[in-house]
Amino acid sequence: MAEFVSENLRRNFGDAIERVSDDRGDLTVWVTRSRVHDLLAHCKRDPELDFCFCMDVTAVDYLSLGGVPRFAVVYHLYSLKTGKRVRVKAGVPEDDPVVDTAVDVWRSTDWFEREVYDMFGIRFEGHPNMKRILCHRDFQGHPLRKDYPADLRWKLLRPDDLLDEISGEEMQRIRSRVSHPISE
């Protein structure tokens, strides 16, 4: 199956495929940053591949390994039809940490991409709500970068409850179903 997937992607994306590795059955496909969105959409929509589930989006900082580019955005895809997985990686340079969003391909990538932005500082172009999700608004920096000081601490200076994530209409609907003194 790994060979079939890699052949399909090479046939459809040619030079955009930078390298392919199959380490003990874990297929990893490196693709150019400019084509990662197209490749992800193909992985989902091609009936032969049918990677209908994006399990995770994360990033890797290769600073301590001397990596060029410094970062990689990593998509973990799964096919419910075949039970197969593929890992798609796209290199992201430190001086331009931007990748096209995949929210239009899988809605589940919404918060995954926000987590990558918050932890690594990689922005997703076209994302509908690109802002922090784990660290508070006053936090500075990106804590999973290899050059982030491990002993640096940030205090929460003002409340940050993410309530701006919920529309007023949705909040009313929630409050109408909850019967608790704190919700009144």
Structure at a glance:
The chain is of the alpha/beta class. 24% of the residues lie in helices and 24% in strands.
What do you see in this structure?
A hairpin with a 2-residue loop joins strand 1 (17-23) and strand 2. The model has no long low-confidence stretch (mean pLDDT 89). The longest helix has 12 residues, at 2-13. A 5-stranded mixed β-sheet has the order 1-2-5-4-3. Strands 6-7 form a two-stranded parallel sheet. The protein starts with a helix and ends in a 7-residue tail after the last helix. By secondary structure, the chain is of the alpha/beta class. The protein is globular, with a radius of gyration of 19 Å. The chain has 4 helices and 7 strands.
| Rg value | 19 Å
Uncertain stretches: none
Structural class: alpha/beta
Number of strands: 7
Terminal CA distance reads 55 Å
Average predicted local confidence, pLDDT: 89
Helix content: 10-25%
Itemize the secondary structure elements and their pairings.
Elements: H1 2-13, E1 17-23, E2 26-31, H2 36-45, E3 53-61, E4 71-78, E5 85-92, E6 98-100, H3 109-120, E7 123-125, H4 168-177
Parallel strand pairs: 2-5, 6-7
Antiparallel strand pairs: 1-2, 3-4, 4-5
Which tags fit this structure?
184 residues; alpha/beta; five-stranded mixed beta sheet; two-stranded parallel sheet; 4 helices; globular
